[in-house]
Amino acid sequence: MTWPALIRLGTVGVLAVGALAVNAAEDLPIVDSATLGTRSDLPWSELVQIDDPFEGQFIGVFDRNFFFDRFLNTRVRIEVQSLWTPESVRVLLMTRDRDCSGRLNPDNTASNVTCSELFGSRTITALLIKVDEQVFQVPGQNNMFPVSDELAEALRTAPRENIRIRLVTENGAAVDSEIGEGTVAAWETLYTD
């Protein structure tokens, strides 16, 4: 074979690989926004194509975990949502509290009960991720954290189990949570070159 023929074959090979990547992305569920906290109908813990009007088109995986904790004599729901992309992790830490008031009747039943739900979010300045026995401390800004090559490799090869994370807020408070096994499994594809 001559050099020009080999170059043409190489170009065809590159085009074929590019076509495979495009076809793989076309088979993914499409999400029209990269925002967190606004919708509960996201395809959680699965690879998706995101077509965001501000950030463009990219591949990612959304994760969500919630649990209850005590705060000032009330039971508060804490929800951690995250979006994992090849370049960064976006995290949202939300709290939901229910404040009810009413009157207790002589027969110990409540009347005129009204409840209001209080929502809040916190700014996260550091993200700690524990993969096996190694802890990655990722500093960030405005709930965004860069994914280094070393972190991407650790996430790609992480054991398929829930992964512990710690979120550190701007006032120094720490909240422990987990990334679900389905999201961890999606990391293998997301962080493969």
Sheet-strand content, in percent, reads: over 45%
Order of helices and strands: HEEEEEEEEEHEEH
From the alpha carbons, calculate the radius of gyration and give it in angstroms: 22 Å
Low-confidence stretches: 1-24
Q: Return the average pLDDT rounded to an integer.
A: 82
Largest sheet: 7 strands, mixed
Your description of this structure?
- The chain is an alpha+beta fold and 193 residues long.
- It has 3 helices and 11 strands; from the N terminus they run αβββββββββαββα.
- The strands form 2 sheets. Strands 1, 2, 3, 4, 5, 6 and 9 form a 7-stranded mixed β-sheet that branches. A 4-stranded antiparallel β-sheet has the order 8-7-10-11.
- The two termini are 31 Å apart.
Feature tags:
disordered N terminus, alpha+beta, 22% helix, elongated, single chain, 193 residues, seven-stranded mixed beta sheet, four-stranded antiparallel beta sheet
Care to give the gist of this entry?
The chain is an alpha+beta fold.
Strand and helix layout:
Elements lengths: L2 H24 L3 E2 L15 E6 L3 E16 L2 E11 L3 E17 L5 E13 L1 E8 L2 E6 L4 E3 L2 H8 L6 E7 L4 E6 L1 H10 L3
Parallel strand pairs: 1-2
Antiparallel strand pairs: 2-3, 3-4, 4-5, 5-6, 5-9, 7-8, 7-10, 10-11
